[in-house]
Design goal:
The structure is a single chain. This protein is α/β, with parallel strands linked by helices and 290 residues long. The protein has a single domain, classed as Rossmann fold (3-Layer(aba) Sandwich), CATH 3.40.50. The chain has twelve helices and seven strands. Strands 3-4-2-5-1-6-7 form a seven-stranded mixed β-sheet, sandwiched between helices. The two termini are 31 Å apart. The site of magnesium ion has 5 residues, from α1.
Length: 290
């Protein structure tokens, strides 16, 4: 059986482009023929499903049957007995297909309480491995090529579960002083997870996004990121593009725009190139920073 590759978009900061990157890298992988599952652990607002215009429909589904299993149920200790009762197909029941050929497992209002619930589990490795166990046992058999997990912009029990499961981080970073500082904090976090929990989590791709191609300052920060992260920086930076915002508001990615602007075309090229590189890096975990 082939291995499913996994990565999570994460930075301990809101609004840096995590969801946009997960969605666009996901669609870029699908365009190269990969079967892709995107998972939203980023919060009850359902941004990932919104990016694909499927959130409202899912909300209705939840309202019609609020007992039905969902992304939060899979963290519960009762989960195996739920599957036993409802059958193995239950996982596929909360995976939603999209028009952009990626499947998504959407967020759920229950994510709000999940962080605190996980906090009640005393043993740290038990607390942080619930999601990994779920993926291993119930999602890997579905044989996706790539799973991308969108995480909240905070370090909490949910993001730790996502990091533990993915073992690979794609960190979107805006080329500015704070962006570079946040990358340093991320590295510290990952190191701490390694020493305290023995979890090897790799910073697999530093992805500069929302880069203003017209300014020298932006260029300079980009150069600094490349110097500091020569082995992990993505091959192409994603430009700032109003089209990306418009596409999100219309419930699709920039790949669906019929008349993309120049910046949107550049962004698409960057996501395609970066997704090829990501797949390569995920397939060769031993490639390592010398
Ligand atoms: N390259 C880009 N050009 C222009 N706008 C962008 C770009 N990337 C992301 N955005 C916009 O920036 C905003 C924040 O992006 P996004 O929602 O992906 O960030 P996030 O890190 O997931 O945020 P949160 O922490 O709230 O989950 C969104 O409105 C998105 O459309
Ligand atoms: Mg988000």
């Amino acid at each position: 059986m082939k291995d499913t590759l996994r990565a999570a978009t994460f930075l301990n900061k809101g609004g840096v482009g995590k969801t946009t990157v997960a969605a666009h890298i996901g669609v870029a992988c699908a365009r190269q023929g990969h079967e892709v599952l995107l998972i939203d652990l980023a919060g009850k607002q359902g941004d990932l499903a919104k990016q694909f215009g499927t959130w409202e429909r899912y909300q209705q589904q939840i309202e019609n049957d609020d007992d039905w299993p969902n992304i939060t149920t899979v963290f519960q200790p009762e989960w195996p007995s739920i599957v036993e009762k409802l059958g193995d197909d239950v996982v596929e029941e909360f995976i939603i297909p999209t028009e952009e050929h990626v499947d998504i497992m959407p967020a759920h209002p229950g994510l709000d309480a999940l962080d605190a619930e996980l906090g009640n589990i005393d043993d740290a490795s038990e607390r942080y491995s619930r999601f990994n166990n779920f993926l291993d046992e119930y999602v890997d058999p579905l044989r996706y090529d790539v799973i991308l997990i969108d995480l909240p912009g905070v370090t909490n029990n949910i993001s730790y579960n996502g990091l533990w499961a993915a073992q690979n981080v794609i960190a979107p970073v805006q080329p500015a002083t704070f962006g570079i500082q946040q990358l340093g904090e991320l590295e510290e976090d990952l190191k701490r997870m390694q020493t305290q929990l023995d979890a090897e989590i790799e910073l697999t791709m530093v992805l500069p996004t929302e880069v203003d191609l017209r300014t020298k300052l932006s260029d300079r920060y980009l150069e600094t990121i490349k110097e500091e992260y020569p082995n992990t920086v993505a091959p192409l930076a994603v430009p700032e593009s109003q089209d990306i915002r418009n596409a999100a508001a219309d419930g699709h990615t920039a790949f669906r725009l019929e008349t993309p602007s120049e910046t949107a075309k550049k962004a698409r090229r960057a996501f395609i190139r970066n997704s090829e590189e990501l797949i390569q890096r995920l397939q060769e975990p031993e490639r390592q920073v010398i």
